[in-house]
Automatic annotation (TrEMBL):
<dbReference type="Pfam" id="PF00881">
    <property type="entry name" value="Nitroreductase"/>
</dbReference>
<comment type="similarity">
    <text>Belongs to the nitroreductase family.</text>
</comment>
<feature type="domain" description="Nitroreductase">
    <location>
        <begin position="17"/>
        <end position="67"/>
    </location>
</feature>
<keyword id="KW-0285">Flavoprotein</keyword>
<dbReference type="InterPro" id="IPR000415">
    <property type="entry name" value="Nitroreductase-like"/>
</dbReference>
<dbReference type="GO" id="GO:0016491">
    <property type="term" value="F:oxidoreductase activity"/>
</dbReference>
<keyword id="KW-0288">FMN</keyword>
<feature type="domain" description="Nitroreductase">
    <location>
        <begin position="69"/>
        <end position="154"/>
    </location>
</feature>
<dbReference type="InterPro" id="IPR029479">
    <property type="entry name" value="Nitroreductase"/>
</dbReference>
<keyword id="KW-0560">Oxidoreductase</keyword>
<protein>
    <submittedName>
        <fullName>Nitroreductase</fullName>
    </submittedName>
</protein>
Length: 176
């Protein structure tokens, strides 16, 4: 397997990706959207159920609607949004305790989305603290539950960005 010339090393990509909270007005290209969504399509899921659906909100009407669900000035600067939905009945369930893995599977796919966007030089931010009832009313799809909204776009030069604070490995890794 060979690496694409313009692709980043994974650790570099993981280091560079951050929660973008200011975007330019430039639209995300179809080529970038196609690349990002292909990476999402390739994300692993339990028993390959792929219990998800992604609504790409690019029209003025759809963007105006999603902006009603999360009232933050920075959020309105994004040129597009991805509404990430979990299939509530189509996910794998662990037999031992009945734990449904839909949120886990969707989380994997969404982070593929965020890293693929970063690989294309675009910014993203996980938004989960939105008005759930408004999202359900405006974007209801039977059998699916909204889990996250991901604004996607070109990062503004003056986008606020602080150094990532992460725990030391010794705090999160234990060898037995």
């Amino acid at each position: 397997m060979t690496q694409k010339e313009n692709s980043m090393e994974f650790k570099e990509l993981s280091t560079l990706r951050f929660s973008t909270r200011k975007f330019t007005e430039e639209r995300v290209s179809k080529a970038d959207i196609d690349y990002i969504m292909e990476c999402v399509r390739l994300a692993p899921s339990a028993c390959n159920k792929q219990p998800w659906k992604f609504l790409l909100l690019t029209s003025d009407e759809a963007k105006a609607s999603i902006r009603k669900c999360y009232d933050r000035p920075w959020f309105t600067t994004a040129p597009m949004y991805v509404l990430c939905l979990k299939n509530t009945k189509g996910c794998w369930v662990r037999q031992g305790d009945g734990k449904a893995h839909g949120d886990i599977d969707l989380g994997i796919a969404v982070e593929h989305l965020c890293l693929a966007a970063a690989d294309r030089g675009l910014g993203t931010c996980w938004v989960c603290n939105y008005d759930v009832s408004a999202v359900n009313q405006l974007f209801h799809i039977e059998g699916f539950e909204a889990v996250a909204i991901i604004p996607v776009g070109h990062i503004a030069e003056d986008c606020p960005h602080t150094e990532k604070k992460r725990k030391e490995l010794a705090e999160i890794v234990e060898v037995r």
